Write the structure tokens for this entry.
Amino acid sequence: ISFNLIFAWLIISLSFTIGMPAPVGQSVFGQTENVQTIITNVLLKSPAEVAGLAPGDTIVSAEIGGQSIVNPTAENISRAVSQSKTGDVTISYIRGGSTPKTVTITPSENVVKGQRLMGIAMDSLGTLKLSPILALLEGARTTYLLIISTAQGLGQFLWQTVMGKSNWSDVSGPIGIATVVGQATRLGFVYLLSLIALISINLALINLVPFPALDGGRLLFVAIEAVTRRQIPPKVANMLNTAGFLLLLALMLFISAHDVFNLVK
């Protein structure tokens, strides 16, 4: 567990020395450069989706009713659209390495009642490049934040699983992870490093889940023995660990089958 977390910290720190994509104002150790407005999410059936916008698109310029939005940052575009009464929004964007394309969007009040919205989430992202020492400090801070957010997401998923409300379509196994790694590789080396660090953090936290056959299960046995002041019979512990291992194996096969289904559908 500690190895996975230290490995993630070093990988993230290396990413900052190369140049890590980061939101404006994320770090107290350096300035984000080459800032661009990136679409991070597009709501289903929203005016933006109908127009063809997708997550990852880079907004080059934006107009409302024929008037250009000066400095088209995520905040400026959102404010201008929400405050406008009439008029279509014209957005020029770049997808990947393609030439700029232009779409016209009619904001709707059906996304959020009383507000004219396109149905997109945006962020001002740039490149944060730090010296090795500052990269280690920022890497430690970023690793800590990722551990907290990952633990919260994992805890919420486990709780939803207990309540029978979990969405297993969001879970990926080795095949699904390989697909995501391929996508990250096409985006760039830094994105691949970030994904490796995130996978390492996930493995560390999943291993802490109090389930037999995991390190968390062993810690649970130790806690039970400390409270009861009695050793758990080795046969019982071995039986629970074997059952836990078989359940994990069955879960891995189920998730792998789901990944294959997603690839071929």
User: Anything to note?
Assistant: Residues 89 and 105 are 5 Å apart (CA to CA).
